[in-house]
Specification:
Elements: H1 14-18, H2 35-56, H3 62-78, H4 84-96, H5 101-115, H6 122-132, H7 134-143, H8 149-169, H9 171-176, H10 184-189, H11 210-230, H12 232-236, H13 239-261, H14 275-287, H15 294-300, H16 309-336, H17 338-344, H18 349-370, H19 375-396, H20 418-423, H21 427-430, H22 435-446, H23 451-465, H24 473-495, H25 502-523, H26 525-530, H27 538-544, H28 552-577, H29 586-608, H30 610-615, H31 622-646
Helix pairs in contact: 2-3, 2-4, 2-5, 2-7, 3-4, 3-5, 5-6, 5-7, 6-8, 7-8, 8-11, 8-13, 11-13, 11-16, 13-14, 16-17, 16-18, 16-22, 17-29, 17-31, 18-22, 18-23, 18-24, 19-22, 19-23, 23-24, 24-25, 25-28, 25-29, 28-29, 29-31
Length: 654
């Protein structure tokens, strides 16, 4: 075996490559499979790993080495390969009639690694995964004689998820090699710098930076969503093929769990799943795949149902895009707004999805305002979002909603019904792949969302960018109504309050939004002051003799009095806004009560220790949020029993 021209060393041998199979997140060739299938899967794995080795570690000109591999691939398809791994592969190619194109994509992925060291957006990274990961799943399906277009699509989602999990595990190793595989837009969203990804010495490293933890949690949520989307593939297969693919899914889930269980600490090396964790995940995946296989078989043959393949594919693509968009919005909401999410999880699935879409857009707008861009660039991007809303309004105007009322569709956001998916037909193309806009447009089609409320939100963030300050509380109030009251009005459209009381209900929602925003201002006093922003009215600061940029401890009792004064004001707005819940249906009321009580609990904690509020961001533990949500459910059930046995409580809409 000769070395590639201009390469310093010969390519690694077969034994060294195949030995790496034991270190993968999933079993490459499980012993439950027949010997010939195991041999073919190892041949495919050997080629993929050889390509990676030439692209990542071989000395000399790696592009030349990859050109050699492309020539050797041609030789394998002609039956003339020389490298032991390609000799083995040519037998599999002939026996399984494998296509060349997936192998060529694996080589191209490694050529890309020589030119590209980072990816700006998720869409760019996803395109890379289509080269580096998806071809392996397609080849596996060919081995199992199951490579239909629909099943390949599901396989692609699983393979991309596995690749994303591996990127999360290996961020330190990749950074040391000069590569960053997490989207840079996501790093910026969470305030994570690339330098935070660097390897660290366990004895000397400090605590894991919170931004790194947040971005890893977000990416792993995205990976779990992709795995969930691909799981129907397991059900579509049978026998040992089902077990083999279930093992891939279980391996990805177990690896994601291992990173989370390790506190997202990946700087010292990649956390790996134990055999017990993998076994539990495999059992869960197999248990969930015991349904019928006919559904996917029907989807693979649309012509049999009297539908043209192109039309069926288009409708399926739109529906899949809408479902995927909602899942991404849910991941953003769970990661960035735990207080909010603990409230909306009490809603029916369709309403919860819509609320996640609303929050994801609001989060995007806030991130523009809070980011490190120059003010002119921030204003330009806010204008882009406003124009996008205008296009969304034009897209959704005139759509009939009467025949598309959302009904109960279960509790899981990742199991949206066909009606919800169909509601977004055509939106994916209009939004050019923007998941947040796809989901928001679908939510607008299902619910009478006032798009102008989102425009108000953008105007509120413009006030932040322009550095508006507030002399009196009456000056601050319009800002609070724009950035939080707008969200309240959007919530009402999803909650679907009684139309006859809408004006009064809107006013109460606005009041509750003001209360939430005042609590946020107190929670973020230190963070905002460090960023040069002061939201508290100047007359209040003068009244209590407080300067937020000064040392908190030096101001002592004056700071305590100011924070308690502002907390009492916020509580007064809560007292008014809390009158909203009895005017809503039971589940919506439970949602409102949960969110309000979480924030009131947070407000009380700030007021009890104002010095702490200036020293760090005050937060509730997850168990506390869950407890508050549970008590909101109990309150809802108690009111329901009261309505059944003693009449409807005063003010409640049946």
């Amino acid at each position: 075996m000769s070395a590639p021209a201009q390469a310093a060393t010969a390519p690694p041998g077969a034994h060294a490559i195949l030995a790496r199979a034991r270190g993968e997140n999933f079993p490459v060739a499980s012993r439950v499979l027949p010997r010939d299938v195991r041999s073919d899967l190892l041949a495919i794995y050997g080629f993929a790993r050889l390509a990676d080795e030439l692209g990542d570690a071989v000395a000399g000109d790696r592009l030349v080495a990859l050109d050699w591999l492309a020539d050797e691939l041609d030789s394998a398809f002609a039956g003339r390969a020389q490298h032991p791994l390609l000799v083995r592969l040519q037998q599999t190619v002939r026996a399984r009639r494998l296509p060349r194109e997936p192998f060529a994509r694996l080589i191209e992925a490694n050529r890309t690694d020589q030119r590209v060291s980072h990816y700006e957006t998720w869409e760019q990274l996803r395109a890379y995964c289509a080269l580096s990961a998806d071809p392996v799943g397609e080849l596996v399906l060919h081995v199992f004689d199951a490579a239909t277009p629909r099943l390949i699509e599901l396989s692609d989602r699983i393979c991309t998820a596995l690749q994303l999990v591996e990127h999360c595990q290996d961020v330190a190793e990749d950074y040391a090699a000069g590569r960053v595989y997490l989207p840079l837009e996501d790093l910026r969203r969470f305030g994570c710098t690339p330098e935070m990804l660097a390897p660290a010495d366990r004895a000397q490293a400090g605590a894991l930076p919170a931004p790194l933890r947040d971005v890893l949690e977000f990416e792993l949520l995205r990976a779990r969503s992709l795995l969930a989307e691909g799981r129907p593939l397991v059900r579509a297969l049978h026998g040992r093929a089902r077990v083999a693919v279930a093992a891939f899914v279980a391996g990805g889930s177990a690896a994601a769990d291992a990173v989370a269980q390790n506190g997202y600490e990946v700087r010292f090396g990649a956390p790996r799943a134990s055999r017990l964790r993998f076994a539990r995940q495999l059992a869960a995946v197999l248990a969930a795949s015991t349904g019928r296989r006919g559904d996917l078989a029907a989807q693979a043959s649309p012509a049999d149902a009297g539908e043209t393949p192109d039309a069926a594919a288009g409708a399926g693509d739109d529906a899949a895009a809408v479902r995927a968009a909602y899942r991404e919005c849910e991941a953003i909401t769970r990661t960035r707004a735990a207080n909010f999410y603990y409230g909306i999880r009490l809603l029916p699935a369709a309403k919860r999805r819509a609320m996640c879409a609303v929050y994801a857009f609001a989060r995007r707008v806030d991130d523009i305002g809070d980011g490190a861009l120059l003010p002119d660039e921030k204003l330009r991007r806010l204008q882009e979002q406003e124009l996008m809303l205008e296009r969304l309004r034009a897209t959704t105007t005139g759509r009939a909603r009467a025949d598309r009322e959302p009904g109960p569709r279960g509790d899981g956001i990742d199991t949206g019904g066909d009606a919800a998916a169909a509601a977004g037909s055509g939106v994916a193309a209009d939004a050019h792949g923007d998941a947040v806009i796809i989901a928001l447009a679908d939510a607008c089609a299902l619910f009478p969302l006032p798009v102008e409320a989102l425009t108000d939100l953008i105007e509120g963030v413009r006030m932040d960018v322009r550095g508006v300050t507030y002399e009196r509380f009456e000056d601050l109030l319009p800002y609070c109504r724009r950035v939080a009251g707008a969200i309240g009005r959007l919530c009402l459209a999803v909650f679907d309050a009684d139309a006859s009381q809408m004006r009064s209900v809107q006013a109460l929602a606005d009041d509750l939004g003001v209360a939430l925003q005042l609590t946020n201002i107190l929670r973020d006093l230190r963070e905002d002051a460090d960023g040069g922003r002061v939201y508290l009215p100047a007359e209040d600061l003068r009244r209590f003799g407080v300067t937020l940029t000064a040392d908190a401890q030096a101001q002592g009792a004056r700071l305590d009095e100011l924070v308690c004064f502002e907390a009492r004001r916020a509580q007064e707005w809560f007292d008014r806004g809390n009158l909203l819940a009895p005017l809503l249906d039971r589940r919506s009321a439970a949602c409102v009560r949960a969110m309000a009580r979480i924030y009131e609990r947070l407000l009380a904690r700030i007021a009890a220790d104002p010095q702490r509020a200036m020293a760090q961001r005050v937060a509730l533990a997850p168990w506390e949020k869950a407890w508050v949500a549970a008590t909101a459910i109990l309150a809802r059930e108690q009111r329901a029993r009261s309505a059944r046995h003693g009449g409807t409580p005063a003010g409640m809409v049946p």
